[in-house]
Amino acid sequence: MKRNPLSLVKARPEPSFQVTFDGAPxxxxxxxxxAAALWSAGVTSWRTTRVEGRPRGVFCGIGVCFDCLVTVNxxxxxxxxxxxxxxxxxxxxxxxxxxxxx
Amino acid sequence: MDLQPEACDLAIIGAGITGAxxxxxxxxxxxxxxxxxxxxxxxxxxxxxxGNLLVSDKEPGPELDLALLSTRLxxxxxxxxxxxxxxxxxxxxxxxxxxxxxxxxxxEAFTETQRRAGVEAESVSASGLAELEPxxxxxxxxxxxxxxxxxxxxxxxxxxxxxxxxRQGATLHTKTTVTALIRGSDGRRVEGVVTDRGTLRAPWxxxxxxTWGGEIARLADVHLPVLPRRGFVLVTExxxxxxxxxxxxxxxxxxxxxxxxALQSSAVVEGTAAGPVxxxxxxxxxxxxxxxxxxxxxxxxxxxxxxxxxxxQVKVMRSYLGFRPYMPDHLPAIGPDPRAPGLLHACGxxxxxxxxxxxxxxxxxxxxxxxxxxxxxxxxRPERFEDGANA
Lengths: 102, 391
Description:
The complex is a heterodimer.
Chain A: H1 5-8, E1 17-21, E2 24-28, H2 34-40, E3 47-48, E4 55-56, E5 69-72, E6 75-79, E7 90-92, E8 94-95
Parallel strand pairs in A: 1-7, 3-8
Antiparallel strand pairs in A: 1-2, 3-4, 5-6, 5-7
Chain B: E1 10-13, H1 17-28, E2 33-36, E3 52-53, H2 62-79, E4 94-98, H3 101-116, E5 122-124, H4 126-132, E6 142-146, E7 150-151, H5 154-167, E8 171-173, E9 178-183, E10 190-195, E11 198-201, E12 204-207, H6 213-219, E13 227-238, E14 246-249, H7 251-257, E15 264-271, E16 276-283, H8 294-307, E17 316-326, E18 333-336, E19 343-347, H9 353-368
Parallel strand pairs in B: 1-2, 1-12, 2-8, 4-14, 12-19
Antiparallel strand pairs in B: 3-7, 4-6, 5-6, 9-10, 10-11, 13-16, 13-17, 14-15, 15-16, 18-19
Helix pairs in contact in B: 1-5, 1-9, 2-9
């Protein structure tokens, strides 16, 4: 059996639900953060930097570095590593400060 | 590294913006300068400030004269290739606003006294506010624009001044605590410093310890009533260019001048080069209490949103606090202390220390080199509280 965090702790998670990332559906297990959901789906970058437009994803993973900022349900600058995913969440790539409309 | 014996004309206690500016002007005037700090560069009040370089909040008098001199000196520094851009110097101008017609009338009367003292100030109508700051609340009565107000990143400014002072021969010792002063045979004269890393003899010792300047004065057995006046700053998430000037409510001027220990708060709002918006400025005298205050944070946020309704959709990432060096008459102590010959003071600038630092350094360098200072230093004399008249 493939070793992954679920098998290692013999987890028996509740049924998965769906969110979208830039419009594409993703399956998420209950309790996963937005970052965990994106990583599980092979997505490692979901923000571009303000000045140079460089890709960013998880760096510290514990809520300190503010590198993993993402837009969820239209609200920018949320830390993907701390934010639990919820059924139907619309996760979108954040461009720069995410406040283009201001 | 322990202190090595070295020829020193001026030992400066404190590597904040004031110590840094004094080091730079003194080194430029040819003095051999040693700067000592028990912590890091800009580790005290300098690192906890907003970098306000304001003339707008000062009533005519000695502090405004100091601020006007500093404004010119900041502009000179900004021209230096090693300083201006790196220090995030921005001559962005200040905009003081009033929400009610009677507040606007009071602001304009105040502004008129400033104009007579040399402050540039332009009255702005309610519709004119929108042109200067498109996101300002449309419900304000009007305001005054102060083109001389500017902004700098204070920790960077202090570090850059110290680095250039070092290029001119100054020495910097951080993590070096002054524990005593070397006294002359008369028991009064100050002839150097004793630190936890050795001693240093110097004909002049400058107390630039900011909010902790009273402790250094005590080492010389003189009284200098510097008290901490706490202030919080809120830091928002990075935003596009939302706020173009330093914007604050006219009530801020009254808060600055207040001597009450109770909480005063009026929003001072500004964008930064890095993107976050900074929201100050609360004032309260609660000693050196570093406890976060939700009450103050809420009040600052509320007042900022009253000025800029768009901020209600913006998150605050963090807050920080600092302790302004408060003097009972709101004026700094600048100059030699006749009670302890050899000791100079440059501290107690309250919330204006970043702005006033270059003038302070420039004037002290003039004193040290035997020149007549550009400004009369008598309002700032450190012994003025001795007779109790100003205490």
